[in-house]
């Protein structure tokens, strides 16, 4: 996808994101920054804090400095761009913002942590606007920090990128939803996103309304709509779930699921199957021809149009898929974290630091113990 805004929002609350720190939220709560959907505004609504805004707003600063909020991403990943949305903030938006990123474990307090990386240098923004900034960093991040200079209000912070899962967790889980955003899955293309983003198909948990799924416009031709998903790793499939929950009068009439590997031709995994409204349809593939041939991408064709709540694709990474996912994760880690992984596998600290500094590495360049952990093979 050429526009980074079509990539998943890694900070979204429905993905597990959380605003874990803000130095001030005098007028409006920090949690609003990662609420799904656009901000709303009622010009007549006032509360005990003053005018009610659907966003984060700090007091009027009377001393030098800046205000800041820290978001723990719902899925660790590589950030490709951020959107600082100042919707409805007109006389009270910050004139400048900056954004930093951090990789840290769950036991670290990000408010006092060191090692923040600049993602967006101090830059001017406009009020009542979606201010977009491309990010060039290739580092794996777990947190982002929004600084506003000097104070004011921001409606939403969108952090678009690609999730990169910790392969050690995938190893422990075994068969997983390899289409899930948190496991490295991502929508790469679709025919229509008129009503909502197809990335919604891959977020954790059940949909809570029709608005939390993917819905296309009504087709007036003989074609059909479709979505393509890059899986978190090449895998063999065990089961799929096609979920039309909350789509009552606008669910697709039928669906076909196809898969491929290495950009090759699509082959049918699930033949054209009727779908019912407001239903989770479960199909077993393990042991069938569809479940024995590796795939690294799937395509869901819906006939002719309509809405889907979730797409789940359960599979087990192949040895090649596990190795590729492990190397991608290890390469994206910040140097100190990569060295720590190697030390944990028994590599001497000095050698671990040198290897981390020399990335990207092939699997055979890693010591045997580290190779087994990173790539899944000895």
TrEMBL record:
GO molecular function, one term: allantoicase activity
Xref: SUPFAM superfamilies: Galactose-binding domain-like
Pathway: Nitrogen metabolism; (S)-allantoin degradation; (S)-ureidoglycolate from allantoate (aminidohydrolase route): step 1/1
Keywords assigned by UniProt, alphabetized: Hydrolase, Purine metabolism
Protein EC: 3.5.3.4
UniProt keyword annotation of DNA damage present: no
Gene3D superfamilies in the cross-refs: Galactose-binding domain-like
Residue intervals of the Allantoicase domain: 16-163, 184-317
Catalytic reaction equation(s): allantoate + H2O = (S)-ureidoglycolate + urea
Keyword RNA-binding: no
Pfam families tied to this protein: Allantoicase (PF03561)
Protein family membership: Belongs to the allantoicase family.
Protein name: Probable allantoicase
Organism: Pseudonocardia humida
